[in-house]
Sequence to fold (418 residues):
Amino acid sequence: MLNKEYINGVYLVIGESACGGKDLESIVEASLHAGLCCVQLREKEADTRTFLNRAKALKSILKGTGIPFLINDRIDIALAAQADGVHIGQSDMPYETARRLLGPQAIIGLSVESWDDVKTAQNLDVSYLGVSPVFDTPTKTDTKTAWGLEGLSRIRKASKHPLVAIGGIDKENARQVVQAGAHAIAVVSAICSAANPEEATRALNQAGF
Amino acid sequence: MLNKEYINGVYLVIGESACGGKDLESIVEASLHAGLCCVQLREKEADTRTFLNRAKALKSILKGTGIPFLINDRIDIALAAQADGVHIGQSDMPYETARRLLGPQAIIGLSVESWDDVKTAQNLDVSYLGVSPVFDTPTKTDTKTAWGLEGLSRIRKASKHPLVAIGGIDKENARQVVQAGAHAIAVVSAICSAANPEEATRALNQAGF
Fold:
């Protein structure tokens, strides 16, 4: 997976807490038909067995679609479910450790929350940077100051890596985010909370790309 | 680590929440001088980076002592910190998956919470069974009915595996637990909450073995 051209489009971040009781598998199945470039499973509350079973179910749905499947944070779950890689933040496993455990072919995305993080990542062979959060959002409460469109644009000029913007992105601002430098736009609630996830995904694709 | 004779003595389970603000490293350093057969790091609230750094610190303390160092649940942390293995429960990674990820030399302990768990484990090459909980305890709230001394004794007769009893063990009941069939007695608060962890460990050793 050294080709990074897949970082281009709508990137779905999904987890039980974001789905408000709705079935995760149905949301992934619906939205992938409208075009996704990546799916990331993020579970911060589930026990390991539940997380693993959910990962295996999504992996099975995505098999053969060509859409990479990533696990947030948990390298053990990624290994056990044979996911394509992980997305890690600055409080997760250090990048070098994650790469050593997952091997050279794995996709490893890294969230950058400060300018120091961006600079450090220039020396890492990460698959993409997660620009987090681009806008303030209620979904993640543990992140730092929002980058804004200006911050995103600065990272685009300074970084060699593909950029996935996340945080408060919806169909109203998707175009601006892509124009400011995002290769992909990651959303949680814009798809997971939508009455019609397929329509919501289509609208994001049309708005952004 | 195919030799299982190390499952014999006082087994310390430690984690930040059990230590009430006291330094984990100091507790491990103090208690290992009084005799420990195993140390397990259990962190249910810490982020991955914090958990990993703590695991590396304890690994460093235990290096060269011959005392196995295990991680509760998190196989990624065990791999990254080069721990000797993991302790898993019935809501963690399935045993076979854990074994595949960690390899044949790793120590893998498995908690049994029902008679079905005990029977299933007869066909697994686990390193030991955690008999959990042997008595009711405030430390773990997610476990099932306590086995009691009678249940422990039944498991000892039926199982081929070394047994580590956990849950509500202190110096007052340690002897009974060993006599009922435990090869090792695992404690959290009896050491972590003690004013003098070294004394507490010595008292458990003297009471139980």
